[in-house]
């Protein structure tokens, strides 16, 4: 495992300094494939640099998002209530989860974005242009990463994951989270400890889709759940890097790889003094896609761990559960199955 950077130390209980894998995508492809697989097996999470997405586009997307959140409440509400797509404040999902944030959740499909732009932006064609370009760039990056993962896993079909995201009916989403400072008057020196002045922004969860690509402004807040050398779970703060993307494995990728890659549990903290803004592309299959451990991932030594399910069934289950539920467990095969994997 190549670990090039270490996150900052945080004094909060159960919050440790841990190295997050940093993967340079300009390195030779076989090396990158190997390192990505290792990172996804060990952490389900890594950071990419030299990813090829233009800095101008990243900044345009960030500014467009910031402008949206600076609108008066009644303008933002024109995006519609979060059902689940739309504009939400504090409430996440349908089951009582709350956090210190507001968000805009969009379908990543261009016609959806075009339609929403007309109701939420004073410059709808610019809004659509920026969001669609950004979605195109991060979808492309996701597909590249998924193809390299498939190569590293030695799958016969190296497009097994990426075809689901490039499908015209892909149910991928774009989520923009804004964590306003909850106490602007707080001075930073509270016990000299920045981590002490945080609140839950977005509670512990795993992302349900295949892959997530997150980019944030320069404000910390993201934490991932890891095991320390003693086997205890610890929250590891991830240092922000607006020039990079953070990639995490989602539940469907864990299921398709028969549990080899880990859908990482993570959360975001809101702090008292600075606004964090994050933009996440969630790469998902079409609703009717049947998800099952791939045949290459199943063998007598590695019997099938999950029952087949459609993405639509998975979403339906998820909407009935709290954010922190380990919902993939509900789809575990009762008895590990040897030979009846589905393609
Ligand atoms: C999410 C998420 C983290 C963040 O929206 O699924 O994990 O930093 N967000 O906003
Ligand atoms: Ni998430």
Automatic annotation (TrEMBL):
Gene3D superfamilies, per database record: B-lactam Antibiotic, Isopenicillin N Synthase, Chain
EC identifiers of the protein: 1.14.11.13
Keyword line: Dioxygenase, Iron, Metal-binding, Oxidoreductase
Source domain of life: Eukaryota
Cofactor(s) the protein requires to work: L-ascorbate
Fe2OG dioxygenase domain residues: 169-285
Main EC class the enzyme belongs to: oxidoreductase
Coiled-coil blocks: none
Enzymatic reactions: gibberellin A1 + 2-oxoglutarate + O2 = gibberellin A8 + succinate + CO2
Matches recorded under Pfam families: 2OG-FeII_Oxy, DIOX_N
GO molecular function: gibberellin 2-beta-dioxygenase activity; metal ion binding
One of the GO BP terms on file: gibberellin metabolic process
PROSITE patterns assigned to the protein according to its UniProt record, in alphabetical order: FE2OG_OXY (PS51471)
PANTHER family: 2-OXOGLUTARATE (2OG) AND FE(II)-DEPENDENT OXYGENASE SUPERFAMILY PROTEIN-RELATED
Family membership: Belongs to the iron/ascorbate-dependent oxidoreductase family. GA2OX subfamily.
Name assigned to this protein: gibberellin 2beta-dioxygenase
Organism: Rhynchospora pubera
